Amino acid sequence: METYPTLRQATGVARTLSKHSSSTMVVYRVTEQKFVTAHASDRVEGTIEAVYRDGYVVQTLLSKRAE
Q: Cα 66–26–2 angle (5° rounding)?
């Protein structure tokens, strides 16, 4: 898990990691200015913003918004 100050940074990292490691990545918000990029198997302790697989956002009931 890695922490970033903006949603844009976190989603960029999640997108890249999901492409290269062929894994599903989750971006979630911990506080107003703290976003976390984690593997889908990691524990989520915040509001899920988006889920990425193979570099693309995945439509899921867990995500808060679609891009």
A: 130
- % of the chain beyond a pLDDT of 90: 69
**Separation CA 22–CA 43 (nearest Å):** 19
**Which residue do the tokens 């899920």 mark?**
48
- Under a CB-based contact definition with an 8 Å cutoff, are residues 34 and 6 in contact? no
3-class SS at 60?
coil
Query: If you average pLDDT over residues 3-10, what whole number do you get?
Result: 96
pLDDT of 63 higher than 80:
no
Residue 55: count of CB within 10 angstroms of its CB: 13
- The residue ranges of every structural domain in the chain are 2-58
Query: What does residue 16 show for φ and ψ, rounded to 5 degrees?
Result: -65, -45
